[in-house]
Design brief:
- The chain is mainly alpha-helical and 420 residues long.
- Helix content is 82%, strand content 0%.
């Protein structure tokens, strides 16, 4: 039976959410608000604490390497300990502990320790994803990820408060106050999820299966699952789409601002306005268009969003002389395309993975994505040093590859509705 009001589907999904899904969705702002307040100031805070640019860049690399290591073993922890226990333990390790270190141990060594620990948010994220996706209708999953995306975007509007605090109290005390407040909210959020969520039947079966097996043996046995992944065209195509999206987002986040200020000639101050425009369009299109998206017909919105992204990047490269109007239109169109891709890529991957080994397969999928996407940042940086628009060409090419993968995945999943 079709929904009478697809425009309210997100609200209906939120109202109808029960158990794990309801707890996850309602507790999300406890993370998002403070996260978006400190993130724009993290590098400035480290510099104010005496770190130089090389040290800050090294910390970013260390954090990424830590994430890759953590991703490889995340599923093993989620299956051994259960989703709830994994989430609360690694929220304490990867968020609460680094937040205290960032507040009080402000030497380079302290930041280095925090960077390593913070990279271990990946197991917590696997537990979070399993609690949200297990026992869930696949079509509702798109709506749930859309709702978490909306929560993140709404939290982003609190970011200006951090700049007000910095102006009032100076950088170090203001950011330290945000860190300490987030320590409290993250600890409370982790407790809420542990107290009010439950491990699903799939999770309980995995916990029983691995009860007497050490974590290291579970990790080493994941090599068999890796072979299973590589033999499954559907899984690898879904992982490929996720990797493409990750590369596209990294290039856009890091090199689009350089193109706008260096080649088009817009000021640094205008970047925040373009970012706000993207956020507003993403929020509006999420509310208007995402309720109509069905996971079993993902190819239509996915391919449309990717083609728009390609068109925008090609236009940037060919017509930089259009200046401000081009950037405004491009920002709006990019905001629309990202509103589709952000929740859809994760939902596609989760629904492609089999239930019985979903946690370990998801962690391996994230590891592959990080492994593939990390070198592309260096490559894009070299391209940018030659011409500021070339990373955008690379991003368009990656998006074209994602189009091919999306079509192939749809044909594999639904051969009766396949098209060439």
């Amino acid at each position: 039976m079709r929904q009478k009001s697809s425009g309210n589907a997100l609200l209906q999904s939120l109202k109808s959410a029960k158990g794990n899904q309801r707890v996850i969705l309602l507790s999300e702002p406890l993370f998002g608000v403070l996260y978006y307040m400190y993130m724009p100031l993290a590098a400035v805070y480290m510099a104010a604490c005496g770190l130089n640019p090389l040290q800050i860049g090294t910390l970013a690399t260390v954090n990424l390497l830590s994430q890759m290591m953590a991703s490889a073993v995340s599923g093993a922890f989620a299956d051994k300990w259960g989703r709830r226990k994994t989430l609360i333990i690694f929220d304490m390790i990867a968020w609460c502990t680094p937040l205290l270190i960032w507040s009080f141990w402000t030497s380079y060594t302290g930041f280095l320790v925090a960077a390593v620990l913070n990279g271990w948010w990946r197991p917590s994220n696997i537990g979070y994803s399993m609690l949200l996706s297990e026992d869930t209708d696949p079509n509702n999953l798109v709506h749930y990820y859309s709702l978490t995306n909306i929560a993140a975007m709404m939290a982003g509007f609190f970011a200006p408060l951090s700049f007000i605090l910095v102006k009032r109290f100076d950088t170090v005390p203001a950011v330290r106050g945000i860190y300490l407040t987030m320590f409290c909210t993250m600890a409370f959020k982790a407790w809420i999820i542990y107290r009010f969520c439950y491990d699903t039947q799939v999770a309980k079966e995995k916990m029983a299966e691995f009860k007497n097996i050490p974590i290291r043996r579970i990790v080493f046995s994941s090599g068999k699952l890796l072979k299973t992944m590589f033999r499954s065209a559907k899984i690898m195509q879904a992982v490929g789409i996720m990797a493409c999206y990750t590369i596209m987002k990294n290039i856009t986040d890091n090199f689009w601002p350089l193109y706008v200020t260096g080649l088009v000639g817009q000021s640094n101050e205008q970047l925040s306005l373009f970012s706000t425009l993207k956020t507003l369009i993403t929020l509006l299109s999420t509310l208007i268009f995402l309720p109509k998206v069905r996971i079993d017909r993902f190819h239509y919105p996915a391919v449309t969003a990717l083609l728009i992204y390609i068109m925008v990047n090609i236009t940037y490269v060919l017509l930089p002389v259009l200046g401000l109007p081009l950037i405004v239109l491009g920002s709006a169109l990019e905001g629309f395309s990202m509103s589709i891709l952000i929740p859809l890529t994760t939902s596609i991957l989760l629904t492609t993975l089999p239930d019985d080994n979903r946690a370990q397969l998801l962690s391996l999928s994230y590891t592959i994505c990080l492994f593939v996407s990390s070198p592309m940042g260096v490559f894009a940086g070299k391209l940018s040093s030659i011409n500021l628009s070339w990373p955008l060409i690379l991003a368009a090419g990656i998006a074209a590859l994602a189009v091919v993968l999306a079509v192939k995945l749809h044909n594999n999943l639904y051969p009766e509705r396949s098209y060439s």
